[in-house]
Design a protein that fits this description.
The structure is a homodimer. Chain A is α/β, with parallel strands linked by helices. In chain A, 42% of the residues lie in helices and 19% in strands. In chain A, the strands form 4 sheets. An 8-stranded parallel sheet of chain A has the order 4-14-13-12-11-10-6-5. In chain A, strands 1-2-3 form a 3-stranded antiparallel sheet. Chain A has a 3-stranded antiparallel sheet with strand order 7-8-9. In chain A, helix 7 packs parallel to helix 8, helix 10 packs antiparallel against helix 15 and helix 13 packs across helix 14. At the A-B interface, helix 13 and helix 14 of A face helix 13 and helix 14 of B.
């Protein structure tokens, strides 16, 4: 029986303990993994031009189905020729399913087996997202990787609710798969849930992986639980996932959680953290976190990070960036965003090299000593 | 007697009626005039990286002495190696004297012959600017062109007040000239005042030009008066200025006022208008002004201006820019700012070509018909 060509192809190049070095081919180019994906919530990485996002080393960006469904509307993006053309970004894009935002941003109406009714956070208008609708929207947006519509469980949550959501998320994933026709153009990833219950995580993984999708997201982590709890559950999750498919830990972007995730076999991450922190004047550097608003940087003419060669560090001093942030100049947020995203892109590149050399544990230990020391 | 080398050198290349085509050499490069100068109030053109400011055709930017004096403080900029290095801009810079902002932004304290006491608009702290202090600050900032500290008269103003301010502005200009030592590094321009009184404008011009400075600003126009009144006074002003020195009409940036100014012999302009309008979703185009928030642009996939080849128009649709502005994404302000500044840079370039060809009046008439038609 002839197998249809799939939109993505994942190749595992090396392993080092549980850490994986891979390569994910997509219709818009090849992604070296592990990879951090900058978030462009509303079809724009906040404050940064797409050329600058590419220049800082980003291989793929994420955009949010919930936001783009509400504004400008997926039909507008479809008419524009899809998200890549709309936002002037010709590298790979991943769209989430809208599930997380429906449960966290919108005024939640009713969750039924059919889907979720909610009120838009923009204008209060009554809206509906379902597995079929999420796929329709994501098909219109045209990202290389799209995500199944899931029910994201908050932390803490009682077991009966989590059990029910595991079942619903699995049934919704089946409906997403049935609704998604063009698997050569866009790869549909499943999402496992299960809250902080190891057995429910295993059950969710079993039900989602049974759909034989080209990749899997781990949802419902980094939602407020202690990090040690997250790492324990993550061990359970990655143990249940097939080795030949990419694994995406959703919503994680702090340096420690990225390296802990990689050490447990995660290949893909996304988070608004680096750009949100940037807008608040916070930089990630090789010497640890730095708050540019501190008075000590007022006459500091060195770059944010002496070990960084990003656009921001090549051209601007801490003194100037502090001035911009203190003055409310948008350029400050842009320069810090470029640096923070470059820092995470560089961290991922170093992690990939370490895995290739069988030295990931030592790399991680050295990084933690320097960053959190 | 040997003449000292001056920081700037102005050459008049062509005239067409009263319109002038010139070339102003500065320590950081040559400026083709007439020129529009984008404003980087706080040592940054709002939302736009300096490379992008250069790429859109800006020859020189303006920065504000009042703002930089208060924050980060001129000594910080001096330690950084001056404004050019601080803000990563290696083309010419002009700083204003702080006079206009003291009179318009600050909580005004007392105007004396010595200078102006005021309360900072940032933290309410008591501050003082005087001719000597303004020059000290501008020397520290290190712009190619610096401006004399003047008393900017509001509109409307009674004759006795304007008379007094003409005298004070002249005495302050003398003190600025005396305080400014390094005329090879920075050119000090005088500023004429005189409100809407033709004879006081003539008197102010006579007293300021008697100082034989390398250029002259026309202050106190575009402060709320009807445009026809401004143009009438402008005729008086340019008649009183020497032909061999550049003339700078301060605070003017609407397309009509730029062309009317050029037709009266103005060489330099600055205004926050193109970037401020951009942040409000307003574009200047070859077909006239455009408000990108209008619903009619929601599914319009053409560029802001079909006749424009700026970065924004080459890469983004009206639909996308409207989406960014409606969504409050900073990138929208950046893309519109790039376009509006490119539009004015292009307008000035076309004006220069028209003057060279002796066709400025026809160019102006054609532009007005297309833009305001």
């Amino acid at each position: 029986m002839k197998t249809m060509k799939q939109a993505v192809d994942f190749e595992l190049l090396a392993v080092d303990g549980a850490a994986r070095r891979g390569r994910l081919a997509t219709p818009h180019g090849v992604i070296e993994t592990p990879v951090f994906m900058p978030v462009g919530t509303q079809a724009a990485v906040k404050a940064v031009k797409p050329e600058d996002v590419a220049a800082l080393g980003a291989q793929i960006v994420l955009a949010n189905t919930y936001h783009l469904f509400l504004r400008p509307g997926h039909e507008i993006v479809r008419q524009a020729g899809g998200l890549h053309r709309f936002m002037n970004w010709d590298r790979p894009i991943l769209t989430d399913s809208g599930g997380f935002q429906v449960f966290s941003l919108a005024a939640l109406g009713k969750i039924t087996e059919d889907g979720v009714r909610f009120a838009s956070h923009i204008d209060g208008s009554k809206q509906m997202l379902s597995p079929e609708k999420s796929i329709e929207v994501q098909n219109a947006l045209g990202a290389d990787i799209i995500m199944a519509f899931d029910e994201c469980v908050p932390y803490p949550a009682e077991r009966p609710y989590v059990e029910a959501s595991v079942g619903r998320t699995a049934r919704w994933a089946e409906r997403c798969k049935a609704a998604h026709a063009d698997t050569e153009r866009q790869a549909l990833f499943g999402i496992m849930q299960g809250g902080m219950f190891a057995d429910l995580r295993r059950e969710s993984a079993a039900r989602i992986t049974a759909l034989d999708l080209p990749g899997y997201g781990i949802g419902g982590l980094s939602v407020g639980e202690p990090k040690e709890l997250m790492y324990g559950i993550l061990d359970v999750c990655t143990d249940c996932l097939p080795t030949g498919k990419p694994r995406y830990l959703m919503g994680v972007g702090s340096p420690d959680a990225l390296l802990e995730g990689i050490s447990r076999g995660i290949d893909m991450f996304d988070c608004v953290l680096p750009t949100r922190e940037a807008r608040h004047g916070k930089a990630m550097t090789s010497l640890g976190p730095l708050n540019i608003r501190n008075a000590g940087h007022a006459a500091d003419f060195s770059p944010l990070d002496p070990a960084c060669d990003c656009y921001t560090c090549r051209n601007y001093s801490r003194s100037y960036i502090r001035h911009l942030i203190k003055s409310g100049e948008m350029l400050g947020a842009a320069l810090l965003s470029i640096h923070n995203l470059a820092f995470l892109a560089g961290l991922m590149a170093k992690a990939r090299t370490a895995i290739e050399g069988g030295a990931f544990d030592a790399f991680k230990a050295d990084f933690f000593a320097a960053y959190y020391g």
